[in-house]
């Protein structure tokens, strides 16, 4: 039987492909939600890294559990998002789950210093950027009324029209991320929906897990737009 020569780490301290188990083990041992797999060839490892089988890791939603979810929105693609910052502001992260044709994909990233609202916005941005198609009907679910109302009630568009000033004349906070989100939503069929957080919805709960895990992780990146 061929022995593994390469180890792909999709979710760990430092994702990548390693040529020895001790190197890979250092990235996943004790890391919550670690996702890794051994391969005989680097080509196989690289192919798997391009499309990890997210549904097999501990704590992640499995394909056989999809039938347990609440009724679908009717959209071809559903995006679930969450974000937060420890002590707000502080280390933060976002979590995204995309449901496309019954297949689940997860995204997450941690930041050195940021805020709850910036991570909520970033989760939406990253989820939309990861869409496989711009022609499908999309339903986005967030437990942030700040985000959902900002889009669905037209607040963000009004702020942009006033050069990022609110109706009271004060600057709109997080204008950089609002601008990115507005640009992304133009030209696509997307509806923002509010979902109550920590209410038992498995995909919303999973996004929360990813966000917290990312905020507590290593190799956090800089939120260059945060002006704290």
From TrEMBL:
It is found in: Cytoplasm. Pfam families: Cauli_VI, RNase_H. Mg(2+) 1 binds at residues 82, 120, 143. One of its GO terms (cellular component) is cytoplasm. Keywords: Cytoplasm, Endonuclease, Hydrolase, Magnesium, Metal-binding, Nuclease. Residues 73-216 form the RNase H type-1 domain. Its cofactor is Mg(2+). GO terms for biological process: DNA replication, removal of RNA primer. Gene3D superfamilies: Ribonuclease H-like superfamily/Ribonuclease H, Ribonuclease H1, N-terminal domain. Its main location: cytoplasm. Binds 1 Mg(2+) ion per subunit. May bind a second metal ion at a regulatory site, or after substrate binding. InterPro entries: Ribosomal_bL9/RNase_H1_N, RNase_H, RNase_H1_euk, RNase_H1_N, RNase_H1_N_sf, RNaseH-like_sf, RNaseH_domain, RNaseH_sf. One of its GO terms (molecular function) is RNA-DNA hybrid ribonuclease activity. Coiled coil: none annotated. Mg(2+) 2 binds at residues 82, 208. Its EC number is 3.1.26.4. Monomer. Endonuclease that specifically degrades the RNA of RNA-DNA hybrids. Belongs to the RNase H family. This is Ribonuclease H.
């Amino acid at each position: 039987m061929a022995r593994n020569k390469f180890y792909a780490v999709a979710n760990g301290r430092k994702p990548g492909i390693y040529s020895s188990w001790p190197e890979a083990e250092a990235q996943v041992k004790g890391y919550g939600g670690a996702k890794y797999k051994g391969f005989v060839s680097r080509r196989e490892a690289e192919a798997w890294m391009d499309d990890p089988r997210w549904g097999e890791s501990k704590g992640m939603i499995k394909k056989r559990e999809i039938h347990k979810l609440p009724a679908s929105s009717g959209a071809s693609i559903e995006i679930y998002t969450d974000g937060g910052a420890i002590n707000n502001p502080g280390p933060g992260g976002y979590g995204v789950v995309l449901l496309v044709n019954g297949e689940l994909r997860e995204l997450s990233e941690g930041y050195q210093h940021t805020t709850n609202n910036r991570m909520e916005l970033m989760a939406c941005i990253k989820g939309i950027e990861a869409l496989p198609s711009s022609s499908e009907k999309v339903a986005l679910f967030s437990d942030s009324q700040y985000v959902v109302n900002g889009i669905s009630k037209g607040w963000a568009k009004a702020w942009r029209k006033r050069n990022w000033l609110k109706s009271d004349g004060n600057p709109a906070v997080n204008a950089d991320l609002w601008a990115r989100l507005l640009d992304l939503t133009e030209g696509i069929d997307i509806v923002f929906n509010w979902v109550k957080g920590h209410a038992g919805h498995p995909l919303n709960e999973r996004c929360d897990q990813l966000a917290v895990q990312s905020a507590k992780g290593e190799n956090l990146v800089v939120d260059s737009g945060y002006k704290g």
